[in-house]
Automatic annotation (TrEMBL):
SUPFAM superfamilies with a match to the protein in the record: Thioesterase/thiol ester dehydrase-isomerase (SSF54637)
Xref: InterPro entries: HotDog_dom_sf, THEM4/THEM5_acyl-CoA_thioest, Thioestr_dom
Membrane topology category: Peripheral membrane protein
Residue stretches of biased makeup (Basic and acidic residues): 1-26
Thioesterase domain sequence ranges: 144-213
Protein name: Acyl-coenzyme A thioesterase THEM4
A biological process term (GO) from this entry: fatty acid metabolic process
Length: 250
């Protein structure tokens, strides 16, 4: 378990010691908690940016072999203090807000993830609209994106479309049609909408284009999402512990 931090996930707390926030009235305390949370999210994003820079350089560098070995040692040293306090697999990150849709380490959209492009998604009149630029680390065929990466982006887009339609669910089917290769280092635009809702089953479609040429579809996708029954949600996620519920942050 990740213990010894305030509920907003910001600052390490020593047992018995009053933090500055605890000295103040509840409203001020809440403000401090939010402040700490936002500050932590900013720091997570900053670390994510640094990691993505590292990944991009590490996958494109032609620095001398000895430099690669030195870099590996320095990176291991930088990682060590982070590894001293890690959360359990079944405890949500303190900076996340699951119900509010904040997942800092989502491998597609998470600004804290070294693996995420990251993809930025917003709702526009019921349409999910996403933007991202894929670095060289996402290369599949030379100079183009890996097809699995396009599928990953579209899965997230379709899932988001189901969510904003009020029918969040898990992917049970994803069909992708690759029409043209997806260029790297090029701003991309993705869109997705819900086509059909049939009980617990939601069908959504989406497409991936470049931002400059939104009429030329590079990849199209159709996905089926299933809303979980309460019993399924309990079975799959019942063990997950949320240590950052609003009641504890206030
Ligand atoms: C205003 C609000 C604003 C909110 C903002 C929103 C923000 C949005 C937020 C965030 C976006 C997130 C985006 C995420 C995107 C990524 C999601 C993922 O990566 S999910 C991981 C990969 N998927 C899995 O791991 C599932 C694995 N599958 C399962 O665990 C099961 O299949 C499960 C629990 C999903 C369903 O259980 P069963 O398979 O036993 O099915 P049964 O519950 O009995 O029936 C469900 C219905 O679905 C049909 N079904 C099942 N599989 C199907 C398939 N492949 N195709 C079509 N239909 C299927 C069945 O035939 C059945 O239909 P009949 O009720 O009989 O009509």
């Amino acid at each position: 378990m990740c213990r010894g931090r305030d509920a907003a996930g910001g600052h390490p707390v020593t047992d018995g010691e009053k933090t500055p926030a605890e000295e103040h009235a509840p409203a001020t305390r809440r403000l401090h908690a939010v402040d700490g949370l936002l500050g932590r999210r900013e720091a997570i994003s900053e670390l994510g940016d640094a990691l993505r820079l590292l990944v991009e350089y590490a996958t494109t560098t032609e620095a001398p072999t000895e430099e690669l070995r030195r870099a590996a040692e320095r990176i291991r040293q930088a990682a060590a203090p982070l590894g001293e306090r890690v959360r359990d697999r079944e405890v949500l990150p303190t900076a996340d807000d699951l119900l509010g849709g904040v997942r800092m380490y989502n491998p597609v959209t998470g600004s804290g993830s070294a693996l995420a492009p990251p993809l930025h998604i917003a709702a526009d009149n019921g349409v999910a609209v996403g933007t991202c630029t894929l670095g060289m680390a996402f290369e599949g065929p030379p100079t183009y994106a890996h097809g699995g990466v396009s599928a990953m982006l579209l899965d997230q887009m379709l899932g988001y479309a189901a969510g904003i339609a009020g029918h969040p669910g898990m992917t049970v089917r994803l069909d992708t049609t690759y029409r043209k290769p997806v260029p790297l280092l090029t701003p991309l635009r993705l869109t997705a909408t819900v086509q059909d809702i049939d009980g617990r089953r939601v069908t959504a479609t989406g497409q991936l284009t470049t931002a400059d040429d939104p009429d030329t579809v590079l990849v199209a996708a159709t996905g089926v999402f299933i809303a979980l029954r309460a019993e399924q949600a309990r079975r799959l996620f019942g063990r997950v512990v949320n240590t950052n519920r609003p009641s504890r942050a206030g």
